Amino acid sequence: MRSLYIDGAWTPSASTASLDVVNPATEEVIDTVPAGDPADADRAVAAARAAFPAWSALPVQQRRAVLGKALALFSERAPEIAAAMAADMGAPLKFAAKVQAGLPLLMFSTYLDLAEEVGERYFTGEEVGSSIVVREPYGVVGAITPWNYPLHQIVLKVVPALLAGNTVVLKPTEVAPLGAYAFAEVLHDAGLPAGVFNMVSGLGPVVGEAIAAHPDVDMVSFTGSGRAGKRITEVAAATVKKVALELGGKSPNVILDDADLEAAVKAGVADVMRNTGQSCNALTRMLVPRERYDEAVGLAARAAEKYAPGDPMQESTRMGPLVSAQQLERVRGYIEAGVAEGARLVTGGAEPPEGVERGYYVRPTVFADVRNDMRIAREEIFGPVLAVIPYEDEEDAVAIANDTVYGLAAAVWSGDADRAMAVARRLRAGQVSVNGGGVNPRVPFGGYKQSGVGREWGLHGLDEFCEVKAIQR
């Protein structure tokens, strides 16, 4: 069994309980991690608290130098890290290399670039009239991360928190933790001072809540479900600490009547199938004009059928399994609910894919005749399930798009760039893609409404881990 990482050393848990790591493609146990307990969280927080004064006192460029060494090691080990993540979460190897390891590398390097660009003055003081505005670290940050993009989410929290001068206690996902262990090894081998970064594996209701409730934890950054996010907020409220949340989504993909329908539908389906649908910002509600509805449904079905589930270790595989048996049961339940509510199953379904005898595989699924009040249109499924919804005119499309408790992401497609931008401004979401706009690691990512509080990515993500002090002169 693996160990915990506390105060610069690999150490056994106070608990003898363990959690199996299962390969979702084979259903075989491939590793075991400690099921930590509150005593482990206490030790980790104490180590982080003790390390905080010296780490926060370093100039930002010295902190950046240590993290630069970690980035170099991460880059060297990226292929083996990608392979480990393909095994523990089922991402196709190509996707694991490009996204599950590649995207964290991009975000890591972007944060280091930003720290160099803003310099020490960004933290030590900006003059505002006769006053000085100073950015300072919160102290000890508790970081609680999910399984769908496990290493990406760790980097988005740990790297900016450390650059800002905080120390960190990480509770990674227990479902797909191998990337977290690789990341801890990278930080250790880079010479990060003891106690600056600590990692305690375990279950959210046990270790996660112990970290969130701890009086010596000054801030909690959480990514996961809305239910868990609400619980983290409730637990953290007793000590009135800052809580940053990146939660779920039910993101609309608005295809206007003058868009290139084939290109828009193809890109929209690809977005939903990405990571086997296990993306909080997946564009799972495709809104198309009623007069082109049947054409769009047919295009979506044909595009989805190209994502045949397969062995993630095969280079040709485009879509791997879901991450766990629990997630498979959840997604199949939603597909069955969609049929029961009267939506038309165009392709896919709840039955196992043909020829699959083991593994947590699900069929890529497209529903038509979906109303926006159905469960499959309102609740986050977290699987490769697309709901195609018709609308009457542009006003109706915007109303349907915004009729959700979520607001994480959205997309607009139009042949008129100005029209697309005008609609994008009306959508209540933290990030909107226009005509397939690509990823920019320097812009903020986060949600409106029940999709979260706060922002990650870019300078906004660095600011999230900074207290702001005004010194009046």
Description:
The chain has 473 residues and is of the alpha/beta class. It has 15 helices and 20 strands. It has helices spanning 38-57, 60-89, 93-118, 121-124, 150-163, 178-189, 204-213, 226-236, 261-273, 293-304, 325-341, 375-378, 394-402, 417-426, 458-463, and strands spanning 4-6, 9-11, 18-23, 28-34, 126-128, 131-137, 140-144, 167-171, 197-199, 219-223, 242-246, 252-255, 285-289, 344-347, 365-368, 385-391, 409-413, 431-434, 452-453, 466-471. The strands form five sheets. A seven-stranded mixed sheet has the order 14-15-16-13-12-17-18, sandwiched between helices. The protein has a six-stranded mixed sheet with strand order 9-8-7-10-11-19, with helices on both faces. Strand 5 (126-128) and strand 6 form a beta hairpin. The termini are far apart.
Query: Number of helical runs?
Result: 15
Q: Which geometry do the CA atoms define?
A: globular
Q: Uncertain runs with pLDDT below 50, 5 residues or more?
A: none
What is the end-to-end distance? 57 Å
Cα Rg: 22 Å
Report the average pLDDT across residues.
Answer: 97
Lateral arrangement of strands in the main beta sheet: 14-15-16-13-12-17-18
> How many β-strand runs?
20
Give the percentage of residues in beta strands.
Answer: 15-25%
Helical fraction: 40-55%
